[in-house]
Amino acid sequence: MKAMIISDSHGLTEELIILKKKHTDVDVCIHCGDSELDISHESLASFELVRGNCDFDPQFPNAITKELLGLRFFITHGHLYNVKMTLMNLAYKAEEEQAEIVCFGHSHIAGSEMIGGRLFINPGSIRLPKGIHEKTYVLLEVQNREIKVQFYSLEGNLLKSLSKTYHLE
Questions:
Q1: What is the pTM of this model?
Q2: Shortest CA distance to 99 belongs to which of 124, 80, 71?
Q3: What is the 3-state secondary structure (H, E, C) of the chain?
Q4: Average pLDDT over residues 137-164
Q5: 50 within 8 A of 75, measured Cβ to Cβ
Q6: Do 29 and 18 touch, CB atoms closer than 8 A?
Q7: Can you tell me the distance from the alpha carbon of 113 to that of 151, in angstroms, rounded to the nearest whole number?
Q8: In what order do the strands lie in the sheet with 136-143?
């Protein structure tokens, strides 16, 4: 089972549509906020969506806790948890939500790591990346308790240096 995770697209629309058409084999699409679009915009159709600090449509939820791909996800943008400074606040919230996978954005810095038995994933930004030149998104593949987090450039190139495989207990 697969998910595509995107964040911080900041007004891009065609790119979202192209990525959805390219990855028709994914079971779920997640946008971690700062789309800067209305929730009903066609390019956001079929995405699990949360509100970022640059999203002004009041229909966006601040966070979603949901069973996806057989695992419990907590999805948020991150600005309400001060993720540019620390992941501690987000980790506490993830524990409260009993999340196994935490998806967030806000910092525009692509990366993934295990914290307290939970997998934290920031897909970076497909518009304004920080720390690297590539505009990034994630394809997440879940098989039993093994999770492959593969980072891709907007052009579709696998970024091996960022991609990792994790095992949830």
A1: 0.97
A2: 71
A3: CEEEEECCCCCCCHHHHHHHHHCCCCCEEEECCCCCCCCCCHHHCCEEECCCCCCCCCCCCCEEEEEECCEEEEEECCHHHCCCCCCHHHHHHHHHCCCCEEECCCCCCCEEEEECCEEEEECCCCCCCCCCCCCEEEEEEEECCEEEEEEEECCCCECCCCCEEEECC
A4: 96
A5: yes
A6: no
A7: 13
A8: 47-49, 28-31, 2-6, 136-143, 146-153, 164-167
Pick from 152, 155, 166, 62: nearest CA to 117: 166
- Amino acid (one-letter) located at 58: P
Q: Please tell me the predicted confidence (pLDDT) of residue 146.
A: 96
Taking only the tens place, the pLDDT of each residue in 59-97 is 999 999 999 999 999 999 999 999 999 999 999 999 999
Residue 144 has pLDDT above 90, yes or no: no
Q: Is 19 left (phi over 0), alpha (psi -120 to 50) or beta?
A: alpha
